[in-house]
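Subgroup meeting minutes
Present: P.N., E.W., G.H.
Scribe: E.W.

1. P.N. recapped why we're keeping a running log of single-chain structure predictions: easier to compare across weeks, and new members can see raw inputs and outputs side by side.
2. G.H. added today's entry (136 aa).
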Amino acid sequence: MSYLRLLKEAYDSNKLNYADIFKSINHVGAYLSNAYMDVIIPSLGRERYLVSTLNYLCRSIKSCDKVVNVIVEDFDDSELVKSCVNQLKSSVNIIYLNCSPIKDLFSRSLAMNVPVYYFKSDSQYIMLHDSDLLVD
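Output recorded in log:
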C-alpha cells in the first residue's frame, strides 16, 4: 500500500480508507471486549513521558475494580515504548498497536480514531489521553 496513494485518496475524498490503514498495522496484546473503559494513548516523539504516564495509569487502574484496556499506539516503532508496555502488561491490560507504517499519515484525529475502529470498541467509555499527561 503506497502512502502517496493513501494521502491522495484522503485528499480526493476528504476521508481515509480505514480498511487499508488496518492492513498495515498490527497489535500485541488481547483486547478485552465489554470493558469499562478504553484508554487510548498515541505516542510520537514523547516516549520519555510515556513511562511515567503508564506507571501512573497502571496504579490508578489497579486500585479500581473495573476492566480497562490501555491501548498504546506507537508511531515511531520505539524500543522504549515496546519495553515499557512489556514491563507493565502483567499488571493491567495493555495493548501495543504498532502504527509506524502509517507514521506519514499521522494526525491527532487519526491517532485517536484508529484504535476505536480497529478494535470495534464496545467499552462504556473511551478516554483519549496524551502520553505526557499525569506524569508524576
